[in-house]
Amino acid sequence: MTNDNEASAPLGAGETIETTLNFSPRFGPDGLIPAIVTDLRSGDVLMFAHMNDTALSKTLTTGLAHFWSRSRAKLWMKGEESGNLLRVGEIRTDCDQDVIWLAVNVEGDGVACHTGERSCFYRRLVGGADRPDQTALEIAALPHPRSRD
Amino acid sequence: MTNDNEASAPLGAGETIETTLNFSPRFGPDGLIPAIVTDLRSGDVLMFAHMNDTALSKTLTTGLAHFWSRSRAKLWMKGEESGNLLRVGEIRTDCDQDVIWLAVNVEGDGVACHTGERSCFYRRLVGGADRPDQTALEIAALPHPRSRD
User: Fold this and answer.
1) What is the pTM of this model?
2) What is the ipTM metric for this complex?
3) Where in chain A are the domains?
4) Cα separation of B125 and B39, whole Å?
5) In chain B, which residues have their Cβ closer than 8 Å to the Cβ of A23?
6) pLDDT per residue over B61-113, tens digit each?
7) Sign of torsion, CA B118 B28 A23 A120?
8) Chain B residue with minimal CA distance to A37?
9) Which of A37, A112, B21, B80 is spaced 20 to 30 Å from A10 by Cα?
């Protein structure tokens, strides 16, 4: 998705942010880039967080996912306390290079959410309501039926 | 992930945002909530965008994904020009209810990215570099090898 920030690395002649093979992550005005985390095997979305430049660099260096905690205003290695580290299998970026996608294996207990659920997305919307305030949730633990494992 | 905004619907006694079965989407200070879009069959991440309250309501009403375009500052039905509409199969929210996950079938040509790629995430990071500015990208079209289809 487009935002108003400049690319953080120069583009070559004739290149655009969509075509370049230079990794030029575009951090937002707050210095953060959103990161989607999926399970490498099942493809299920496990969590969503943000990275600053240091978190991204540490993720690349160590192969373990690091984020910037907005609530605690600190760098954070996911699983540093629980042991549920996220070992990165693949990193992608999107057309505009303002989103990061990490496909990971969850170490330890295989739990990615602070609630103890495997994924943060353990509730789905139900019902035919046409307004958010008329919509309910139900617990629907992943893996999703489409998952392989 | 935690942010500083209040839940948009009241919680029952003893409930938390993590446990409630009331859908209480938490929009950010800019009135937006991030939305991850995956392919309902393969699980691949297709795109990432933002919704305001109206976009979320219209998505629920129509079963077709609507977003708020930050660059154009307008409501946007994905595929309204291309015909590549996103028909929603399932909607989930995360522990803190500040992220939306849409699992969709892409109509039309099956293309979700404005570049013509099926997914916006058509490039992956390569190489052993330990800094973002030493990391290259390569084209690696989805579906991912783990995908079913």
Assistant:
1) 0.90
2) 0.90
3) 33-117
4) 21
5) 125, 132-133, 135-137
6) 999 999 999 999 999 999 999 999 999 999 999 999 999 999 999 999 999 99
7) negative
8) B45
9) A37
